[in-house]
Each structure stands twice: as C-alpha cells, then as structure tokens.
Amino acid sequence: MPERHVLIIDDEPELTNLLAYRLRKDAFFVRTASDGAQGLAAIDDGFDGIVLLDLRLPDADGLDLVEPIMARNADNRIIIMTAHGSIDAAIEATRRGAYDFVHKSEDLSRRIAVAVKNAFEHREMTSRVSSLEEEVSEKYHFGNIVARSPEMRKLFETLRHVIDSKVTVLLQGESGTGKELVARAIHYEGPRKRGPFVAVNCAGIPETLLESELFGHERGAFTGAIAAKKGRFELADGGTLFLDEIGEMPVHLQAKLLRVLQERKVERIGSAQLRPVDVRIISATHRNLMDMVKDGRFREDLYYRLAVFPVFLPPLRERVGDIALLASYFVEKACQEEKKSPRTLSPPAMRMLERHHYPGNVRELENIISHAVVVSTGSTVSISDLPLSLVDAVRGGGTQRADAPRELDADGNIEQSFEVMFQSLEEIPELERVETALIARALQLADGDVVQAAKALGMSRATIYRRIERLGGKEALVDPDGAHASDGG
Questions:
Q1: What is the dihedral of CA 369, 371, 375, 376, to 10 degrees?
Q2: Which of 148, 195, 233, 336 is most buried, judging by how many CB atoms fall within 10 Å of its CB?
Q3: Which residue in 131, 122, 128 sits closest to 50, CA to CA?
Q4: In angstroms, rounded to a whole number, what is the distance separating the alpha carbons of residues 218 and 231?
Q5: Which residues lie closer than 8 Å to 173 by C-beta, 6 or more apart?
Q6: What is the pLDDT of residue 479?
C-alpha cells in the first residue's frame, strides 16, 4: 500500500498532538502546521494527501484556504474541523472544494480517523479510474469502445484482424453488450470509413415492410408504393450494412438475402433489374443461430455465409475490471449531456455498482448512471442517487421497480438500506450527525417551517429548538436557498 500522508493545520497543540497520535497509530504519516501560512508552505513543499483544516486559525479563515490548497494540488482532500460549525459553513466549504466537514466534539479522534480513511478511499478510487482511463486510451482502445478487461482486450485483438478484410462478421452476445457499437468500430476503423454505415434492426420492422426496407421497391410495386425507393443495400453501397437481430428475419427473406450475398446484386420489389452493390455485411444476434438451424428456423447455408468470422461479446458481469471504468465514463458523459457540473462516484456507490449482475449489460449500466446523475445534487454521486431497483437487486431483496417510492418506512427498508450503506463499524456515522442531518433535511424540505419538520420527524418543536440551539442557534440549520427555521404560518 502506498504511503498515506495527512497534514493537520490547527493552532491547538493538545488537539493536534492527539489527532497526530491517533492517525500515526493507524499507519498514517502526519505533518502539522499551526497557522494558514505554515499550512500553505507545506502544500508548496509538495504535500500530497489529506488536509485536516481548522475553520478558525490565527492568521486566516479556514474557508479562505480551501481554494488555494486545491489550486496547488487538486488531488488533496480537505476535511474542515471546527467547534463553531453550522450548515452554512458546511455548504460553503463543500462549494469551495472541501471533501468533508467534522465538528470538534467528544470522540473527535475516532471520527477524524474514519473521515481520513474515507477520504483516502475516495481519492484512491478517483485515481484508480483516472489511471484506467489513461491505460485504455493508450493501449486498450478500439473505436469508441471503453474497456480494459482481459476479455475485451482479447476481443479487440480479434477484431483488428477483420478491419481491413471483406469477410462477413457475425456478432453474438446478450442484449445490451454493445454489438452495434462494435459494428460501427469495425466500419470506422477500416477502409470503408468514408462510406455509409447503415443499420437495420430486423426485429424492429414489420415483416410486411422488411423486404422493401432491405431491397427497395419500384413505383406501383404494391399498394402505397407511390414512388421508387432504394433499399438499405443500395443506401449502404460502398460502405457497411449492419443487420441487427438477424435471427428474427423470416425464412422466406433469408433466401433472398442469401442470393444477394452470393451475387452481390440486389433486385427491388417490382423490378427484374439486378443492381450491383458493394457492401460489407456485419450481422448480430442474441440468439443461438446453430440451434435455430437445427430447428429449421434459420437457413444453414445463410448461417455459414454470415458467420465467416464469428465474434462473441462477453456479458458485462464477466468483464472483470470494466464496470468501474465504464461507470466513470458514463458519469462524465451524463454530466455533459445534462449540463451538470462534474461529478464523481462515491466509493460505496462504486462498490455497489461492481456487485450488480447486470442482466441488461452495458446498456443497463449506462441507464443506471444517467438516472443517478439526474437526481444527484452534489459533487458526488452516492448510493442514495442510485435507482432503488439496483439497490434492491444487490442486497437480494427482489425486483422492486425503479420508480418505486424512495421513503424508508417501518417495514424494514431502512434497516436494509443501512446494511448496504455501511459495510463496517468504521463507516457508521455518529448518531448525533445522523440526527442533525435529518433535522436539517426536514427543515430544508419544509422551507424552514419547524412545525412541519417536527411533524414529519415525530419530534416536538421544543426538541428541534434544543437541537438548533446546541448547534449554535437558529441560523445553524439553513436550506441551500437561505430559508431559515421558523414557527410556521
């Protein structure tokens, strides 16, 4: 394990020594600074790790040091410490780039140790994904396909053999494994890239229209044929025709397709003229075509014409190492598409994603990430942002719908959710922090109305006011838009 360095910037010697002692016991390398100037000097000297930053220093406000520290080294993670904390300060610290915010109170050393451990885990997860992305871009890249697993690296090497060839390629694999993406990569990486790429989903076009779509028709060839129309073969001339879900093609059309492949000429419906076409054929299916051949549902001669070069795409659950890379790639993509600020996946969320089975493969993972990015509000995508259907599937709770209500009620959901969120004692937050967060969230949702918040929490107004006073006054619990706690009305 690489060395883990912690810098404590605090002007209280007793507290600094206590934290340094605890962290060194946990095998962290600790440096200390008694004011902001010394802290920045340590950063300038090349410090790289976790910074424990006091909110009130002799020469500076800790919040004002967050951005200079991050500007010097964006890989650092900053944990703000204060005895005078408020929701305002926590929100502002996060906005400026701090990773976490811890109140100075009893058992601070234990909570700091847990926060530092989590910060290193988050930092190392981010670094891991970044290095994987760099590795893929340099070594394991095929078209626009993102992967690094041994299974996909082997697939890339196989596909490079057919880029410059004219042989037909049959892509086999479960739905959602990216067969069309592979077909496009073969086309755009090869000599036909300047020609058209035309895709046809044989399962998505009614049988009565599929023949016309593939081969074209002449005017008056059938009712509704008011003008001549080129088929997909002619449209793909000089390029690639991708026949997706080829196993769904009716048997009578299979015979006509075989003739086109043999003669390299196409005959429109209603015409006796044969038109030459120069088309490379890539087909795909999630079915076992050999079983269909045995059952008489697929022509054996057509199968061998299409499967000159058969390729199997492994399901995502068998692509060890690709889930984290793909998830981070999809987060970045979704943030750009939704015009949201950059986000990263929290380590617990990433662990949950890596434990899922993915019956829908890469397509399912992308949809999960799109959902999570849309509902996320901070700079980190957490477990609470993931669809409940995923959370339920990972924890073995069945097949709860993704649009099911997100409340945690008395039927055991909250206990199961905690089982997923907290995998060890070190990850369990202090009860006071949970209570404070719940009160703050209730007040935010109630626009600061204490009566409504108390009713939702099952607390009395007096209890909430006591919590507010203990945290430093009414302004300590503030929503992001600035609505303060009030008596309602």
A1: 0
A2: 233
A3: 122
A4: 10
A5: 179, 284, 286, 312, 313, 314, 315
A6: 41
**Which of 104, 135, 166 is the last residue before a domain boundary?**
135
**Is 86 contained in some domain?**
yes
Angle between helices 62-72 and 87-96 (to 10 degrees): 20
Claim to verify: residue 157 and residue 281 sit in the same structural domain? yes
**φ, ψ of residue 132 in degrees (nearest 5):** -65, -40
Identify the domain containing residue 382 by its residue range: 317-427
Structure tokens at 482: 């600035």
Q: How far apart are CA 476 and CA 98, in angstroms?
A: 19
**What does the alpha-carbon distance between residue 41 and residue 48 come to, in Å, rounded to a whole number?**
13
Q: Are 344 and 380 within 8 A, CB to CB? A: yes
Residue 88 belongs to some domain of the structure:
yes
In a domain, residue 485? The reply is no
Structure tokens at 361: 């493969």
Confidence (pLDDT) at 208: 84
Q: Which CATH number do you get for residue 462?
A: 1.10.10
Q: Do the Cβ atoms of 146 and 326 come closer than 8 Å?
A: yes
Q: Where are the beta strands (DSSP E) in 313-448?
A: 344-345, 380-381
Q: Identify the helix (H) or strand (E) that includes residue 38.
A: helix 36-44
DSSP H/E element including 242: strand 240-244
Strand, helix or coil for residue 4: coil
Q: What is the CATH number of the domain that holds 298?
A: 3.40.50.300
210 in the same domain as 63: no
Considering the chain, what percentage of its residues have pLDDT values greater than 90? 50
Alpha carbon dihedral 467, 470, 475, 481, in 10-degree steps, equals -50
Residues 129 and 10 in one domain: yes
**Considering the chain, what percentage of its residues have pLDDT values greater than 70?**
84
For the entire predicted model, the pTM comes to 0.59
